[in-house]
Specification:
There is one protein chain. The protein has 446 residues and is an alpha/beta fold. It is built from 15 helices and 20 strands. It has a seven-stranded mixed β-sheet, with helices on both faces. β18 and β19 form a beta hairpin. The longest helix has 15 residues. 53% of the residues are buried.
Length: 446
């Protein structure tokens, strides 16, 4: 497995493509680009501290001061950079990838991930080689352990949130943080909201006792905890705590697509406005937006793409259907702490169980598949897809997206893994769309 290098950072299998030397060199490039103090945080992966130190060394050698935040959710780093006025941020994480992976995500001075243009500037510096200052230009390191507190305060100060109303309900919440970066911050937030917390995989040792993605098939223990403890809701996070999945009071994982749809319905009820989502997000959001007479705009996959569209539209809410809620009032990225708080506020105000709120949403069938094989020529495979569907109305901004009546399929090369992702949604079954696309991808490259 090589190293995946993109405008959003680097990611790879540690020891095979991603090494401390690579992290250091990337730190030098980013430090040279920012020209100022950089916040650095990481998730709980066992390789995190090694790569953090390497990246910090690179940043320091480029003349950047470093504010070291420790083990912290990715959205906390974004929030800290934005509200503390730093020149940038770096997060040591591979998000939902397996434990053998790690990476660096880069944060702009605005507290969002880099745009394509900004990322290209950093990549240019990386490819050209390090440009370091003299001994007297080396940066300094400071420690901050209050980043999670700052983040929580920003979440609770949102105009959409009434912490006292949530406290009055005395919710019991099961939290599965996959022993990741949300273990402590998530629990601290919920306790601030007066919740009784049932911890599930909340030791921040980074060993990932379940699959790291918070998808239904990985949330069996959270479902059991909700049932056994009579919890009002279960929250499932990914390792860097930017994605949120829900388990209803019945002990049933409802699917990560419902997180954003519910958050959108709640926010639009308070502040109607346009919504931005990515091309792979369920059309549930479009149906919800239609209830409030507002439009949904779609952007290429990648939260910065969605965010930039949100800022252009001045959208009050948006995100990605993988459980990523973006509330720009608080944070410029997917934020599970925001997501948990909005869901609890919704439950408090609706005075109904989560299962009933979910039942009121339109129902679609979504299927997700991946295509990978040794030596995969992703461009050739995508060209076959474009040719096959050439007679239809295609959206080519990010791979290929085809809409057929109230069904759609989106095929795109992954930004984070050497594979092609296929997502389809329909009212009854999405199997036919998935099978059609997989058949095209499996054709001989020749």
């Amino acid at each position: 497995m090589g190293l995946l290098i993109s405008v959003s950072g680097i990611r790879g299998v540690v020891g095979e493509g991603l090494t401390p030397e690579v992290a250091c060199r990337f730190g030098v490039a980013f430090g040279g680009w920012t020209g100022g103090p950089v916040a650095v945080g990481r998730d709980t992966r066992p390789t995190g501290e090694m790569l953090e130190m390497a990246a910090i060394s690179g940043l320091l050698s480029a003349g950047s001061d470093v504010v070291r935040l420790g083990v912290i959710p990715t959205p906390t780093v974004l929030c800290f950079v934005r509200w503390e006025g730093l020149s940038g941020g770096a997060v040591i994480t591979a998000s939902h990838n397996p434990i053998s992976w790690n990476g660096l995500k880069l944060v702009s001075p605005e507290g969002r991930f880099l745009t394509a243009g900004e990322g290209e500037e950093v990549l240019k510096r990386y490819r050209e080689g390090p440009s370091r200052g003299s001994w007297e230009d080396v940066g300094q390191v400071a420690q901050r352990r209050d980043a999670a507190d700052l983040h929580i305060e920003k979440v609770l100060s949102s105009e959409l949130v009434d912490p006292e109303a949530i406290k009055e309900r005395g919710f019991k919440v099961a939290l599965d943080a996959v022993d990741g970066a949300g273990s402590e911050a998530g629990r601290k937030l919920l306790e601030r909201l007066g919740c009784e917390v049932v911890p599930v995989h909340c030791r921040p040792d980074g060993r990932f006792p379940r699959g790291p993605e918070p998808v239904p098939e990985n949330l069996g223990e959270l479902e059991r905890a909700v049932r056994e403890h009579g919890a009002d809701v279960g929250f499932g996070l990914d390792p860097d705590a930017d994605r949120l999945s829900l388990v209803s009071e019945e002990g049933r994982a409802v699917g990560e697509e419902y997180t954003l749809a519910l958050a959108v319905r709640f926010v639009l009820g308070k502040e109607p406005g346009p919504v931005a989502v990515n091309l792979s997000t369920s059309r549930m959001v479009e149906d919800v937006a239609g209830e409030f007479g507002v439009q949904v705009y779609r952007a290429p996959v990648g939260e910065v793409n969605v965010l930039m569209e949100m800022l252009r539209l001045r959208a009050p809410i948006g995100g990605e259907g993988n459980g990523g809620v973006i509330l720009p009032e608080v944070n410029y990225g997917r934020d599970s702490l925001v997501g948990m708080t909005l869901i609890l506020q919704y439950l408090a105000e609706a005075d109904e169980p989560l299962s009933r709120l979910v039942a009121r949403l339109p129902r679609y069938v979504m299927r997700k598949a991946t295509y990978r094989r040794p030596g995969l020529d992703r461009e050739a495979a995508m060209e076959r897809v474009r040719s096959h569907f050439g007679g239809e109305d295609l959206d080519l901004r990010d791979g290929v997206r085809i809409v057929r009546d109230r069904a759609w399929v989106h095929i795109r090369p992954s930004n984070t893994e050497p594979l092609i992702r296929v997502v389809a949604e329909a009212e009854v079954t999405a199997d036919r769309l998935i099978d059609e696309v997989m058949g095209i991808l499996e054709e001989d490259d020749g």
